[in-house]
Amino acid sequence: MFGVVKKYGDDRGPALAALLTHYGFMSLFPLLLILTTILGFIGNAHVEHSVVGEALKQFPVYGQQLGDVAHPLSGSVPGLLLGLFGLLYGALGAAQSAQHAMAQVWNVPGVVRPGYGPRLARGLVFFVALGFGIALPAALAGVATAGGQRTIMRLALSVVGLLVNVGLYVVAFRILTPKTIPTRELVPGAILGGIGYTLLLTAGTALVQHQLRHAQVVYGQFAFVLGLIGWLYLVSQLSLYAAELNVVRSRQLWPRSIVQPPLTEADQQVLHDIAHQEERRPEQRVGVGFGPNAPAQAAEDANEPPPKRWL
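Given the sequence above, the corresponding structure tokens read:
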């Protein structure tokens, strides 16, 4: 576990979490407008309320306040489509930042990272996966309501919700992670992320209510914004720690030294990967060495074949 925490610090995890929080906050309202508008086209009030309500449950305490400002867009069809396209393009900042964070976690060299077009397409796939992750619990909630034994159904729904969260993390990691990494290597982090997110949802309402029970009266909308940013930051940190767990297990980055020197093999591997991560051009080669033989090791490392393109 210390190796995961150490790797999180090596990758400047707090800065990545802040980046995800910023773009997540900026993308939240455009995505809610897109969701409510598309559901408005469907014309089924029950489906609209169920899906939107399930989406707002992902934000403890503040879900109702978010719903008050997320009204379907209206107007001419061409203008509406153009507006939705603009909102989607603006919201893709969250997907772009998620891809950047995952590339940093896996220490992917800059020279082999995907270009703008592939990142844009991957961001769209990412949002589609999130949409299914929101719609599925809404459908399950409808089944539970229709069931006769509601207590049993709700318990079963909680278990299924946990499995959905784990599955959603698996899909998200698969979309955002290099294809050279087998899917089985992503499962442990997905399990940690799914369980942690479920616990956050369960305890989040009580926690936020306890911390801000007087702040809403005194600070009004400032408390709403700060609380929402705090919630997004917690989710971002959880997701990054879950991703770091996958990297540490896949590369066996342990044991890590608390105080250096000396450096363990895992320490050297992490520093090696971070250095190669800074390669920006195909003709640029970075060599890394340690100890008395560092120059010779660096020269040999620089002559190794360039990494494959990240697809």
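The CA atoms of residues 22 and 229 lie 8 Å apart. Try to locate this feature in the token string yourself.
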